[in-house]
Bidirectional sugar transporter SWEET (Colocasia esculenta), 251 residues
Amino acid sequence: YLLTAGNVIALGLFLSPVPTFVTICKKKAVEQFSPVPYLATLLNCMLWVVYGLPWVHPHSVLVLTINGTGLVIELTYVMLFIVYSQGGKRLRVVVMLAVEVLFVVAVAAFVLTLAHTHERRSLIVGSLCVVFGTMMYVAPLSVMKLVITTKSVEYMPLFLSLASFFNGVCWTIYALIRFDLYITIPNGLGVLFATAQLVLYAVFYKSTKRQLEERRKAETGLTEVVVNGDPHKIRHAAEKGLHPPPEIREM
C-alpha cells in the first residue's frame, strides 16, 4: 500500500508544474523559470525506467509504469521550454536533452551487453539512480539562490515544492522499512531540500506579493498614460525636456 501511495504522490510531483507551464504558454515565454529541475527529473525517470526493465530488475512493474509516465510528462515540459525559450537558453536546453538521451542509451546498452546477471545490472543502474535521483532533488538549488537574491518566490512554484516534500517523505519511509539504500539516500535528501524550499517560501511570501503588486501598479499606470495621452505628443515633449500635462502625469 505504501508503494502504491508513493506512486500516486510521485504522479502528483510530476503534474505539479502544470500551472507553471500554463503561465508559460499564456505568456509565450519562460522568463526566469529554470529548466534544470525538469531536465534532472527527466534523466532520473529515464534511468529508473531502465532499472525497472525485466532484463535489469524483474518484477518492478510499479517502478516501470510510474517512471514511464513521469518520463512522458517531463519530456513534455522540456519540449515546452525549448519552444518558448530563445537564443542561447534554447540551445542549452536542446544540448542538455541530447546529452541525457545519449547517456541513458549508453547505460542501457552497457548493462544489457556486458553485465550478465540481474544482480549486477541492478547494482550498476541502481547506483546511477542514487546519484541522479539526488541531483533531481538538488536541482532546485539554483532556483533557491534566485529566491534569496531577488527576495521573491515568483519563480519557485509552491506546488512543486510541496509535491517534492511529500514524495520524498513517502519514499523515505518505504525505503527505511525495506532497508533499501538506493531509495533512502536520494529521497532522504529530497525531504531536506524540499523543506528548505518551503521555509524560503514562507520567509519571502509577503515580499513577493508586495513586488507583484508594485509591478501591477506600474503596468497599470503605463497603460493609462498611453491611453489618456497622445503618444506622439508625449515623445515630442520628452525630446524637448518638457513635462507632460497634468492628465498624463497622474497615475
In short: The mean pLDDT is 80. The chain has one domain: 1-205. Residues 181-228 form the longest helix (48 residues). The radius of gyration is 24 Å.
